[in-house]
Structure formats: C-alpha cells, structure tokens
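During the reporting period, we have paired protein sequences with backbone structure tokens. One record among many follows, to show the layout:
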Amino acid sequence: MIVALALGGLPDVGAGDDLAGLLAAAAGELAAGDVLVVAHKVVSKAEGRTVALADVAPGKRAVALAAEHGKDARLVELILAESEAIVRSRPGVLICRTRHGFVCANAGVDASNAPVGDLVLLPADPDASARALRARLRDRTGVAPAIVIADSFGRAWRVGQCDVAIGLAGLAAVEDWRGRVDRAGRRLDATVIAVADAVAAAADLARAKDSGEPAVLVRGLERHVIEEDGPGAAALVRARDEDLFL
C-alpha cells in the first residue's frame, strides 16, 4: 500500500531558513524507505531564488517579446535569463528549455505562492538541492528519506498540468522493464516507468494547490528508495536527438 500524507504546520519559508529542520519537525518520526516530496517553491525561497519584479530592467529583446505575447517585459526578461532557448511560442505562451534541460512554460518563472511583487525561479541545481536536503535530514534525524523536488509541468500529448520531479536524491528515477516479458511472455522493448514523476504526481493529489502544504510524506515505496543519492532527476531529461517535439 502506498500512503501520501500532506504535511501541515510549515511556516512561510524565506531565504536562509532551515528547510530541513522545518521538514523534520512537520514530518515527525521518519523511517527508512520514506520519501519526502517537496514543492520547488519552498526550496527556491529557502535558497534565495526569488526576484522582486520592481528590480528587473528589461532589455530590448524582452520588450519586443512582451509586446508580441502580452506579457510584462520584466517577467520576459527573467524568462530569457533562465532559458537556454525558446522552443515553442504562440501569443501569450512561451515554452522554454531551461539551463537544466527542462522544457516548460516560462522557464519555470512563476508568481503563484510568492510574496506580492516577487517571482520565484527554479532552484539553480535542483538535484544538488535534493542531495543537500537529504544530507541535512540524515544529520538531524539519523534517517535519510528520499527527496523529490516537484514542479507542475504541461505535457506535450495531454491537456492540463501534472507534477514531475525536477530534483531527486535517494529514489530511482526510472524502473527499466526493457528486456523483461509481459504476462503473455512478450518481450518489452520500450517500457521504462518514470518512477520519480509518478511519485511527484501522486503526492500532488494529497494536497491542494492553495493548501499551504508544500511537502508530502509518501510511504510504501521502499523498493524504489536507494541508499546512494543516485543520478537525480537529470536522468529523466530526454536527450535532444531523441525528442520528437524539439
């Protein structure tokens, strides 16, 4: 059985706050095999990855794109700064490839659940953030739960958004079934289960977007939890030469 419990009692997080300590207090007694799914915004806030919109001076390209897409030029300036490339666009929509390799709207720059007038950026290195959180929790509690840092992404084939893993430590990113056989004995040639993304999506169902509960404790996934930190969510980024949408 898999259980997902939204953690209440976390205060608003600001730059420099001890996020590991706050998570440990909210989670109570952690056990080996536990997974903590943490919304990226609290990680970004703790790491100081917020920007006051009033402090942004847009350049010429940002001004031109803003006029074309009906966006605030200061927001577009931040999107460009966080992007490696704009891969798709239409009026009002900018789909970008971030410096991390993620393909998402607005390069992950977001105003929701941010202080008024501020924008939240993605963590500079979400996998490093996950590893650091796991290490601090190990030092504090003696237990090293797996850490998933999650954000909501759209999907190329589907309507709506779904939480995915953008940072990861201690959890197998994927479970590769290629080479195994199905119940009828047919060889599986393409089945690779996106474990970390599935965990992020399941955890998101345990909390509401406006609940003020940015962390979810997931239990029952011991077979996917690993002792080492592992390659992180970087393992989920499809190579560009395999991506039919870019």
